């Protein structure tokens, strides 16, 4: 199998962290590409009509895309336990979606600043996205710490990758202010070998 990959993408990082947690990094080749919303990689477009990463090209030629789809597939393929069933499974999936949503907003902010001409950038848009991130972080800190203290799942990976991406692209925002419990949790989770092995290069 082949994963279309960029070390800067938090969505790709989710998948690679999962492979490390499952001890299956040798099962998937990483094809590192350069792609943006305005300039898509040709090979990626052929595999995924949306030209988004991550995209997992299976050995049968079928390509899966969207990080949650890929992670669910790999977890099932390798008999993982990163998507618990039974009581609490929907809360767990909601927590993963919260992490992914933080990524969505943080990536949108980065695109606005990096890809748009300066005279077309919207400060209002950037601040609206940050308001969503800030609100989500506050809720994680106040309501979800019990879930984050539980067995490691894709919810943990999603939230950790989202927080690390906020550090990477928006570190000046100081998301840790007022979110001490979440900050402590992230510091501990970020020390896992899977997170250390997938750290993005310095910008």
What is the CA-CA span between the terminal residues?
29 Å
**What order do the strands of the largest sheet run in, or round the barrel if closed?**
2-1-3-4
CATH class of the largest domain: Mainly Alpha
The name of the CATH topology of the largest domain is Glutathione S-transferase Yfyf (Class Pi), Chain A, domain 2
Number of domains: 2
Low-confidence stretches: none
Write the CATH architecture name of the largest domain: Up-down Bundle
Secondary structure class reads: alpha+beta
Structural summary, described in words:
With 203 residues, the chain is an alpha+beta fold. Helices cover 55% and strands 7% of the residues. It contains nine helices and four strands, in the order E-H-E-H-E-E-H-H-H-H-H-H-H. A four-stranded mixed beta sheet has the order 2-1-3-4, with helices on one face. Strand 3 and strand 4 form a beta hairpin. The two termini are 29 Å apart.
Task: Describe the structure concisely for a colleague.
The chain is an alpha+beta fold and 203 residues long. Helix content is 55%, strand content 7%.
Keywords summarizing the entry:
four-stranded mixed beta sheet; Glutathione S-transferase Yfyf (Class Pi), Chain A, domain 2; 203 residues; 4 strands; alpha+beta; 55% helix; globular; Glutaredoxin
Lay out the secondary structure.
Layout: E1 2-5, H1 10-21, E2 29-32, H2 42-47, E3 55-57, E4 63-65, H3 67-77, H4 89-115, H5 123-143, H6 145-148, H7 154-170, H8 180-189, H9 193-196
Parallel strand pairs: 1-2
Antiparallel strand pairs: 1-3, 3-4
Helix pairs in contact: 1-3, 1-7, 4-5, 4-7, 5-8
